[in-house]
Design a protein that fits this description.
Elements: E1 6-11, H1 14-24, E2 29-31, E3 39-44, E4 47-53, E5 64-69, H2 76-85, E6 89-97, E7 100-106, E8 112-117, H3 133-136
Parallel strand pairs: 1-4, 5-8
Antiparallel strand pairs: 2-3, 3-4, 6-7, 7-8
Length: 145
Amino acid sequence: MPKIQYLVLRVHDIETAKRFYGIIGLVFRGEKHGKEEFHYSTVIDGMVLEFYPLRPGQSPSLVQFGFEFQGEVGDIMTVCERLGREGFCVLNPPRLTSQGYTAKVVDPFGNKIELIQNDGVLFSDLGDCLWNTCITDPSWKKFIK
């Protein structure tokens, strides 16, 4: 089975992309190859993710994808809180589901991103009644757009 080697997203502002995805935990480096535009790239589990500036007349790339957090990478509750504080869109704050803790955010360019934190435990037997405290905490509403 082939695997994805790289993903290029064309965006309005590569600095904003770097900031948003940096909050999620990605570390970027700036690159410029020959006559190509300056862009940012990072490697995620062997796949290269790159953010290039839009060319004149070009539409932004729109995709939907997810990131799985391991214990040491970060806590999605903290990530969502920071995204909300910095003015980014938290579509659905973290909640406990059968997949673990999940949240949905939208990057500044309209891409829908699912954040999943499942530290090796499946919660399918817990039902839908368990929600993370941020759902019932009214102060969380200020982070949701």
